[in-house]
């Protein structure tokens, strides 16, 4: 499903780099002291949209404009970062974008989506409700539906993995958050294309552990609710495609509590003065949870985004864990 070649990935990277520079990766000494190992951070919080998803939007929209030059409009669903990536890429082509979000979605992510040109519509209590409504509206109005997981999105976001592995090819383990799976699937495919032995570990919130439960069961396990302030990993309905890739290529999926995620947000700011949203901090939370496992080795963590609302960030820095 996401079996792109290295040449195709390199072409995607060239396309992405025509819209944004590669993001940096740094080994932070204070994080190393905290984790008990060398820690490399891939700073996807440094993209034009503040998150890794922008890469997928660029690649997907480029393909769409060639395959469907008269596209009447796009509809999609999001918790925020995917919903910024699509209008960011589509605005250059004049394609209208409608984004469905659930009630209580990030105020600042909603504002950013509108600023990129999207019409933002609130529907339902969680991402799955918003996604189902986006499908219904797309079919009813003849709009092009962009799903949360698609081979072109995976190829696009995999360009961060190409940058990271080529800059630091001897990483022992890389931790990545799991929302709908594009990021970790891109990491797995890129590692395999480059012939590396790096262990890849997925990270979910304890209150949104559908992918962890599915990974352990070997088949899709759907949950009825999710409870986490880390909206980027608030998934309750996994898909078979990304799960199959994880089952074949991930070492394990780690659950972290919201308290651990909040502590990782604080650690990022204290040790590196970078802002991490909940999903972006989850990989560091997992590394810290497994502190003894990587002693003396070299770990990578993907800081997938820094789009946390100001009020939540202030509360977190004050030592609290935001309500889910």
Describe the fold and architecture.
There is one protein chain. By secondary structure, this protein is of the alpha/beta class. The chain folds into two domains: 6-52 and 151-317, Rossmann fold, CATH 3.40.50.1100; 53-146, Rossmann fold (3-Layer(aba) Sandwich). 46% of the residues lie in helices and 15% in strands. It has 13 helices and ten strands. It has helices at 6-17, 29-35, 53-67, 82-90, 107-115, 127-141, 151-167, 182-193, 210-217, 240-249, 258-272, 278-289, 310-317, and strands spanning 25-27, 38-43, 74-77, 97-101, 119-122, 144-146, 173-177, 199-205, 252-256, 298-303. Strands 1-2-10-7-8-9 form a six-stranded mixed sheet, sandwiched between helices. The chain has a four-stranded parallel sheet with strand order 5-4-3-6, with helices on both faces. Strand 7 (173-177), helix 8 and strand 8 (199-205) form a beta-alpha-beta unit. Helix 7 crosses helix 8 (182-193). It is globular. The two termini are 33 Å apart. The mean pLDDT is 96.
